[in-house]
Specification:
mainly alpha
Length: 660
């Protein structure tokens, strides 16, 4: 009964915090109900809700209001009431009209859409259900800060640039309102929702870009291909699978806000609505509060897109494809009073309410400059290929050729190219400047990140190249959709339907094979055994939390102990506590000297070096994986085994041995 009640409370908290606020605010901003399709409305409502939860919680904390279940419920209930009343007032008197007409598709089209969604969810469930117990290293680090908020009823001041408050508020708010601990399926469920809506954001972006130059039917097909390339073919491989069940939280949020902001700007251009641009600026601002690396990557992509816009518009003007007035109208849609006002409002919020921890010279200097390590000097093409997936890279190149053709045809009076696109890809007669502008978005989102990960020295990027290349996942799916369409459309339209279906299946089967090869490395082979080990680590951590005093020093092993980062979540004695033996390769750093005591106290505890380290650190308890580097402790007269299970053991070095 208690489990059922927790499920009900968790579902209510997710709806109340991560959908309702954004939905009501969206209805206030766009009361006519015609701006978004039901898919667009759901995605924007979810992202807006994250924005509201972050901003409102930071405001409450700044006002000195304790963050607990009562204040969270009351503040968001008041917000929902005010937003709902405002939406009803603005809706009154307006004619009832349908949603975004660009979303119209045939019954078979929507059947295919829900089939792809179903496959995407199924693929994630296969991966997530055996790993629903939180255990990953990054999720343990993040959930420490989430539990800090729920335990101490206020937001932390990190003092380090590697973490940002927006990564933790949404988890803390859901935990506070539902009463469900973070040591549960809560983190995985929230991350799953973020990933699910990011898939839909890429679907929406693919449709908006293609709607600028081809038919609604074709744009729907391109959107489906993008959804399949991201949702099915790359569902549970690295980095997505690892991230969905608790990896880098900020990457997941960036995966939502980057395509969503681009979608809002694309939709603003297509529909000439300045409010959509303002909403896009808000999404960028919230992303800056949730993940510094996502924002950093987006700024480079944004700069590249802006340069492409400038060249494209200049070419269109020189070839008399557009007048100065037409160009200014396009620019005003993107840069206008509404979007500038939102940007200024965010800046004021930053300096009056909460400054992100990475906005300081030292943090900026660690990311910008000449690469300082071998892991930051760029990736070979084969490494990029393996990381992104051969299927997506191949079709991304094909998609790039198609969109480059659209750009040239849109900027110049090229009857040959326009006739080619009309004949094979249903180029619309009224196609204008938007086609080339939005093609720039799709192209530069992929190719700029590709260049950043391959040639970081050119762009003065001092960040691990492997982290940059992970951002190719979403833009490669988008471009691959255009590439698959470029190959499929001319062939299928000229062959019998049955053969066309076989050809379509052949194209998609290559993606499934590529995705399956990614899956094999990360699929849980012994899921039951893994879950047992994680649970035993949690029990050992609870034992330490109950039996030790706050001032007593504990050492854990990150090399072999499963779910070791979660020990700190049970102890809650500081982000750097307990001490940890890191991966052994990290102790051999040619750039700078590293401490070795955390290694030596486990590897050689009874050596002179080990004894000296124990004296310096005052470590009294050591938690290890049973059978891994435990022999030296079992044989030593200076350590006692005080806790033992099948997979986890804890040794104590009594205080009277401190002089040894």
């Amino acid at each position: 009964m208690e489990i059922i009640l927790d499920i009900i409370k968790l579902n209510f908290a997710l709806f109340f915090l991560l959908f309702l606020p954004g939905y009501l605010l969206l209805k206030t901003i766009f009361p006519d109900g015609r701006t978004f399709s039901f898919v667009g409305e759901a995605v924007v409502s979810f992202a807006l809700s994250i924005a509201i939860v972050n901003l409102l919680t930071m405001l409450l904390d700044r006002m000195g209001i304790p963050l607990n279940s009562l204040t969270v419920f009351t503040s968001f209930a008041v917000f929902a009431f005010l937003a709902g009343a405002s939406a009803l007032a603005r809706r009154k008197g307006l004619p009832k009209k349908g949603g975004d007409q660009s979303s119209i598709a045939t019954g078979k089209g929507w059947l295919a859409f829900f089939a792809v969604i179903g496959l995407s969810i199924f693929a994630r469930m296969v991966y997530l259900i055996p790993k629903v117990i939180p255990h990953t290293t990054d999720s343990g680090h993040h959930m420490y800060w989430v539990k800090y908020i729920t335990d101490f009823s206020h937001l932390p001041q990190y003092g380090i640039p590697d973490v940002i408050i927006g990564e933790h508020i949404i988890f803390a708010a859901v935990s506070l309102l539902s009463g469900v601990s973070v040591v549960s399926s809560l983190p995985v469920i929230v991350l799953f929702l973020i990933n699910f809506f990011s898939l839909l954001a890429v679907f929406l972006l693919a449709r908006q870009i293609s709607l600028s130059w081809t038919s609604k039917k074709n744009s729907f097909l391109i959107g489906l291909l993008a959804l399949a390339a991201l949702g099915v073919f790359y569902a549970i491989s690295s980095p997505q699978g690892k991230y969905i069940n608790g990896g880098v939280v900020g990457n997941m949020l960036g995966g939502l806000f980057i395509p969503l902001s681009l979608y809002l700007f694309a939709k603003a251009l297509n529909e000439k609505k300045q409010l959509l641009s303002a909403l896009g600026v808000l999404m960028i601002g919230i992303m800056a509060y949730t993940h510094h690396l996502s924002t950093f990557v987006f700024l480079y992509v944004f700069a590249a897109i802006a340069i492409c816009f400038a060249f494209y518009l200049a070419l269109a003007r020189l070839s008399n494809q557009a007048s100065n007035g037409e160009i200014m109208k396009k620019l005003k849609v993107l840069v206008n009073f509404k979007s500038v006002a939102v940007g200024i409002g965010l800046i004021i919020f930053v300096y009056l309410i909460r400054v992100p921890s990475y906005l300081n010279p030292s943090a900026i200097n660690t990311a910008v400059g000449e690469p300082s390590k071998s892991t930051r000097t760029g990736m070979e093409f084969t490494e990029v290929l393996l990381s992104t997936g051969p299927w997506r890279v191949f079709y991304s190149v094909a998609g790039s050729l198609l969109l480059a053709t659209v750009i040239v045809a849109g900027a110049k009076k090229s009857s040959y190219l326009k006739s080619f696109l009309t004949k094979f890809y249903s180029l619309r007669r009224e196609t204008g400047l938007n086609a080339g502008l939005l093609a720039c978005v799709a192209l530069l989102w992929f190719w700029m990140i590709f260049l950043m990960s391959s040639f970081p020295d050119v762009f003065k990027i001092d960040i691990p190249s492997g982290r940059i290349v992970n951002y190719l996942t979403y833009p490669s799916a988008l471009l691959a959709a255009f590439g698959a369409f470029a190959i499929l459309k001319p062939v299928i339209s000229r062959i019998p339907a049955r053969i066309g279906i076989l050809f379509f299946a052949l194209i998609l089967s290559t993606g499934l094979i590529s995705g399956s090869s990614d899956v094999s490395e990360f699929y849980p082979v012994e899921a039951e055994k893994e879950q047992t080990m994680w649970i035993e680590t949690f029990r050992g951590s609870r034992y330490l939390a109950d039996k030790t005093k706050e001032e007593e020093v504990i050492l854990k092993d990150h090399v072999y102990l499963p779910a070791d980062s979660w020990v700190k979540v049970f102890l809650m004695r500081g982000y750097e506590k307990p001490l940890s033996r890191a991966l052994l390769k990290r102790y051999d750093d040619p750039v700078k000297d590293r401490e070795t005591c955390t290694r030596d106290m486990i590897s050689i505890p009874d050596s002179s070096i080990g004894k000296e380290c124990y004296q310096q650190t005052s470590v009294e308890y050591i938690i290890l994986r049973n059978g891994y580097d435990t022999t030296q402790f079992e044989k030593s007269p200076h350590f006692s085994k005080i806790y033992s299970s099948e997979h986890v053991v804890i040794f104590q070095r009594p205080t009277f041995n401190q002089s040894l």
